Amino acid sequence: MNWQETEVIIYGPDGPVPKMARRLWWIPLLAGGSLTALGIVFLLRPGAASQVTIALLGIVILLIGSIEIPMGLALRHTAPRAGGLLLAHGTLGILAGTGALLQPYTFFHVIIFLGAAGFLFFSLAIAALSVYLQKANTGRGLSQKPLPLKFPVLLFVLGLTALIWPGVILDIVTAGAGVFFVIVGLFTIGLGRRIKRFLIHKLP
Predict the structure, then answer these.
(1) Shortest CA distance to 55 belongs to which of 11, 111, 12, 97?
(2) Closest to 169 (Cα-Cα) out of 44, 38, 40, 46
(3) 149-183: per-residue pLDDT in tens?
(4) Cβ–Cβ < 8 Å for 73, 87
(5) b/e code 122-145 from CB counts within 10 Å (16+ = b)
(6) pTM of the model
(7) How far apart are the first and last CA of the chain?
(8) 142: which residues sit within 8 A by CB, 6+ positions away?
């Protein structure tokens, strides 16, 4: 039997899935339209969009922390180390989420500072490793050519820019999110239109 010529019909509570799905073609269109509209708002109103994004991030962090604390309390006797880690992480999450909701820009600057410090440290570490490998030249499997410095230089520039102009990074992240939402939204709209055309014109 050729499996490519075999028709598989999956039945749901209302009959075959294709017939049931004819009433759901509008869901991708609605989701795509919502994402496209959200992306346009992110591009036109980056300040308000960044505040909403930070607030949503704070809510997510709060929810994660509120889940981890009871889990840590439940594990404090059976698995003290795991319970302690969950309690500590959950407490930090509660503090960070509260800070993101009460002082969104302060929270953002702290995150930017930590990320910039990590970028600077990582870029300097890669550059130092490249210089070491170039000078070692031991012939023990290490490359005699230095590692490409484009990546650490890019990280260093990003970290330095984040420290000096954190607002620029916020605008870049917001604009990138807006472009991403618009692209995904338009793709989802196109997918919904194709699904509608297939369900209405191709299926019996």
Answers:
(1) 97
(2) 46
(3) 677 777 788 788 878 887 777 778 788 888 999 99
(4) yes
(5) ebeebbeebeebeeeeeeeeeeee
(6) 0.57
(7) 25
(8) 133, 136
